[in-house]
Amino acid sequence: MAKTSRPFSLRRETESPGIMGILNATPDSFHGPSRQASVDEAISNGILMVEQGCEILDIGGESTRPGSKPVTLNEEIERVIPIIEGLCERLDNPCISIDTRNAEVARRAIEAGASMINDVSGLRDHSMKNLVLDTGVPVCIMHMLGEPKTMQANPVYSNVVNEVCSELQKKATELIDAGHPPELICLDPGIGFGKTLQHNIDLLKAHELLRGEHNLALLWGVSRKSMIGQITGQERTEDRLFGTLGVAAYAQQENIDWLRVHDVQAHTDLLSVMRKLR
């Protein structure tokens, strides 16, 4: 497979996080309003997110919420490819990330126009690592303990920060040693993916340790998650925007590179005001 002609650095030149917009082509994602009812709706919402300030559109066809079950390869492909193709037809050189842990889905997505891979399983599939090296696309490597169906069943670590940092940096170093540029890698601690509330807090507070010797870019995906509900007492995902924005404000203060969010306009406005005041 030929290398993509559109690599881009995941390291931010500005003091403010970039926005990755969540576009779920799934019927069972944990935040109900984020589910797209049709391909046309997904394309329209993706265009809107870009207009609102989203720099990367993250398209996924498999829910990985706690307790979720895997979908078939064909089903995942059928969900995401028409959306990617439609966005590439409607937008001028869009930056599309494929949110998948399946190398074949990622390959098909790149052929359809995606220019980044977001792997929640942290490149467990060796074929995914080979695909990243073969295509030269930017990649986000996320940490997940176990599998989505059981990951929140009493997650235990000896030292969550050390273990998560060690595992993610090992994966990143394997890519770098094989020739993948460090600026095309970002790491995601996997908030809510096999972690308790305290694990999540510890990882967010110790974020600089995650960058490692290569000073890698960082991505946080905390939008409307159970962590927000546990802190604020808001049980419904629909009521967790304000708490989510609190994490975004902290991320801006701490120079995090990317935020993966459901609510692009709200985050764009928040970060714009904070930039101006700084």
Describe the structure.
By secondary structure, this protein is an alpha/beta fold. It has a single domain (18-277), classed as TIM Barrel (Alpha-Beta Barrel), CATH 3.20.20.20. Helices cover 42% and strands 13% of the residues. It contains 10 helices and 8 strands. The protein has helices at 39-51, 73-90, 103-112, 126-135, 160-177, 197-205, 207-211, 226-232, 241-253, 264-277, and strands at 18-24, 56-60, 96-99, 116-119, 139-142, 185-188, 217-220, 258-261. Strands 1-2-3-4-5-6-7-8 form an 8-stranded parallel barrel, surrounded by 5 helices. Helix 5 (160-177) links the parallel strand 5 (139-142) and strand 6 (185-188). Helix 1 (39-51) packs across helix 2 (73-90), helix 2 packs parallel to helix 3 and helix 9 (241-253) runs parallel beside helix 10. The protein is globular. The relative contact order is 0.15.
Can you give the mean pLDDT? Answer: 91
The CATH first-level class comes to Alpha Beta
Helix-and-strand structural type: alpha/beta
What coarse outline follows from CA principal-axis ratios? globular
- CATH homolog superfamily: Dihydropteroate synthase-like
What string, H for helix and E for strand, traces the elements in order? Answer: EHEHEHEHEHEHHEHHEH
> Strand share of the residues?
5-15%
What's the CATH architecture name?
A: Alpha-Beta Barrel
- How many helices? 10
Helix share bin: 40-55%
Unreliable residue stretches: 1-5
Biggest β-sheet: strands ordered side by side in the sheet: 1-2-3-4-5-6-7-8
For the largest beta-sheet, the strand count, sense and barrel status come to: 8 strands, parallel, barrel
How many domains? Answer: 1
**Count of β-strands:** 8
